[in-house]
Amino acid sequence: MSATPRRGFLFGTGALGATALLTGCLANDPPQRQNPSAVAAGGDNAAPGTQVTIGFSAPAADHGWMAAMTTNARAQAEGLPDVTFRATEGSSDVNQQIAQVETLINEQVDVLVILPADGKALTDVARRATRAGIPVVNVDRVFDSSDAYRVWIGGDNHGMGVNAADHIAAELERRGVTDPVIAEIAGTDSLPLTQERSAGFREGLQRHGLRVARRVAADFTAESGERQATNLLQAAAHLDAVWNHDDDQGIGVLAAVEAAGREEFFLVGGAGSRDMMDRIKAGGSVVQATVLYNPSMCSSAIALARLLVQARGMSDLAEHEVPRSITTYSAVVTRENVDQYLDVGFAS
What we know:
Blueprint: H1 8-26, E1 52-57, H2 64-78, E2 83-87, H3 94-106, E3 111-114, H4 119-131, E4 136-139, E5 151-154, H5 157-175, E6 182-186, H6 192-207, E7 214-217, H7 222-235, E8 241-244, H8 247-260, E9 266-271, H9 274-282, E10 287-292, H10 296-309, E11 325-327, E12 332-333, H11 338-341
Parallel strand pairs: 1-2, 1-3, 3-4, 4-5, 5-11, 6-7, 6-8, 8-9, 9-10
Antiparallel strand pairs: 10-12
Helix pairs in contact: 2-10, 3-4, 5-6, 7-8
């Protein structure tokens, strides 16, 4: 989330309202009540405020997307002169992450930004932080209870699947393909996020009279992506379109595709890695698009944490406070718009 102030619209609206009020009174018309939303904006978010110490905890950076989450958080904090950033060492061990958050609580940081390895398992320690007067920004993997966080920011997994389906349906129609064979390479099936992505994809296709003909599930790694894509390609003599949930596992998926010499279908990725965007821009690959699940949400989480402590709202919104939840949008990146999104592509 950019810290650049954009108050002109709200200021202009307020000035216009004041002028209209004055004109109405001079004309002996009934007074017009000023629109209260025009005076309730959060102010200049870019202006330095009270010094804030932000504690940050996330899982180990064991693949590109997760590494980008931590990198983005750190970069955002370093760009804010009134923020001190205190990050724990990333760990995917739930008990270790709990212990690290407890340390940050004991150090009495002003606010916590937590991307939990497991939302359910980290709920209790986040609730303890909240009860100790430390607001919590919950990133992506949601805690089990809303009283464990002040604000949640994360991606739209269901919407990601819907947008992938809509793009695939439109492209198949453009190509004049009837009765297509559509495949899905999911992430880890036991995770709610994978289930939501698959549900969105299935429902999106159904709206177009289409369905998933072949489905395999990988584990968000290049190795599992290559293994499962190999199985898929061996089982399906022909495919028209493939949606791969994750661009990190997509590295392995593409290795399997190239090894098999298959190019009769087009592939839509997921998350928005720079590698996939480069392939989309260059053309000549089965990769035609990727649906964003952008790690820039972690940059925004740091910005939100700062505003919470400084008791500010968001300058482009009328509310005095930071909203309760923010869901990012899963834009579809294609060759036509890829230049617009290259700056948020992450390294796989």
